[in-house]
Amino acid sequence: MYWCCAHLRPRQERLAIHCLELGGYQVYLPRLREQRVSYGRKIETRPPLFPGYAFVAIEARWHAVRWGVGIIGLIMAGAAPARVPDGVIAELRSRERGGLVELPRQPALRPGGRVRIAHGPLQGCVGLVAGMRAGERVEILLALLGRVVLTKDAIEVV
């Protein structure tokens, strides 16, 4: 038995998982615990960690999974499904609390907060966050260059 990754059809995730489980397959769909505010109330949502994908434990009958209801296909490595190491599944399950994956909280990027550029030609420069843009981009004020727009993963909070 080994784990592989199935690409699920949009809005048919529950159906695909149900049909796989009826077929005797072990399915793992890690979900996140997220808090959001709606109309002044805190609401807990449980979206998938990897939207549109689920892990399936297969033996030799992977063709039945590939053509299952609600499944677009399997992530392939040549002519066979790509193997997901057992350690990856174990790590995801170790992060679960009450059946939901809890990711470590990252420091908030707020306008006026100090950040250091971690990668690229401006590595090591310290600046202030000017604002956020669409696509996970951060606008930073640097003393030498004025405004610079970088990706969120290129900076670290100081």
Report on the structure:
There is one protein chain. The chain is of the alpha+beta class and 158 residues long. It folds into two domains: 2-101, Alpha-Beta Plaits; 114-157, SH3 type barrels (Roll), CATH 2.30.30. It is built from three helices and 15 strands. The strands form five sheets. A five-stranded antiparallel β-sheet has the order 14-13-12-11-15, with no helix packed on it. It has a four-stranded antiparallel β-sheet with strand order 2-5-1-6.
Compact overview of the structure:
The chain is of the alpha+beta class and 158 residues long.
What top-tier CATH class of the largest domain fits best? Alpha Beta
State the major sheet.
5 strands, antiparallel
Question: Taking strands numbered 1, 2, ... along the chain, how are they ordered across the largest sheet?
Answer: 14-13-12-11-15
- From the N-terminal CA to the C-terminal CA, the straight-line distance is 46 Å
Domain unit count: 2
Q: Report the strand count.
A: 15
Q: Give the name of the CATH architecture of the largest domain.
A: 2-Layer Sandwich
Sum up the overall morphology in one term: elongated
Would you tell me the structural class of the helices and strands? Answer: alpha+beta
Strand content: 35-45%
Number of helices: 3
Could you say what the CATH topology of the largest domain is called?
A: Alpha-Beta Plaits
CATH superfamily of the largest domain: NusG, N-terminal domain
Uncertain residue ranges: none
Elements, N to C (H/E): EHEEEEHEEEHEEEEEEE
The portion of residues assigned to helices is 10-25%
